[in-house]
Amino acid sequence: MGKIVLCRVDSRLVHGQVVTKWVNQVGANKIVIIKDDLVNDPFLLSIYEMSAPPGMKVLCFDESSAKDKIDELSNDSKVLLLFADVASLKRVYDLGLELKNVQIGGLGGGPDRKPIYKNITLDDEDFNYLKSMHDAGVVIEFQIIPEDKPYEFEEVIKKF
Amino acid sequence: MNRILLLTHFGWGSTLLKGVEMIIGNVDFVDEIALKPAMTSDEYSSQVESFIEDNGKDLLIIVDMFGGTPNTVALLMARKYGIPVVCGLNAPLLLGACSMVINNSEVSVDELVNEAGSSIFNSSKKMGLNI
């Protein structure tokens, strides 16, 4: 079954040193990306694999089979779970994936989005998704690199 | 190949180009699209693709390093348009690439990479200083 050692939302998914730092910080031995269109793009997936630390396996599952496929991973798996956006995280969470902690490390830009923490912005939809997860007991933090101090979602609720 | 497109984190390629122009004079065929901190891959990808649509695909793309978003986006352009991508931007590489364009030479990207690839070494050790 393995363990999810970090669940991170980052629109840039696997990018260079940022992911390497997190892998080292949390001791992950596998990266799992949940993204429907990436499942059908082995070329792009292989770029992400080559962008990860050498020897790190990078797997990709679609949203509907994510929970089951994660459950099937070997018991020694320490997984860095990656989502590209809050909406896909929420969908998979609602399908039953158990998460205790979620890290928001990078999100898309766009109109109607308010800056929350450094470069991370939220719109009403993302805020509501995160709030509902928060209310269900998931600890949500904003943090880009390990050197940053995490910014708690509790603080966001006060200001949003 | 008649243009060079630099893709870097934050846009340091333009400054590098100024340094290179001290050596070879002004060039008008090098452009840069910088990845800024708040950008998403999609925004960046749109900018890069627009550039290619406007300027054509007879380009060499040079990115700062493998593993970052500029490189990922560059490789998607490589797949779509057949544009070569070299990673590891530095002064000798940019100089070599500019010379290729200026001389309209038959030097291949592989030769460019071989030559520029050996540009990083311990300079002090090479000169016999044991540092």
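Strands of chain B lie at 3-9, 30-35, 59-63, 85-87.
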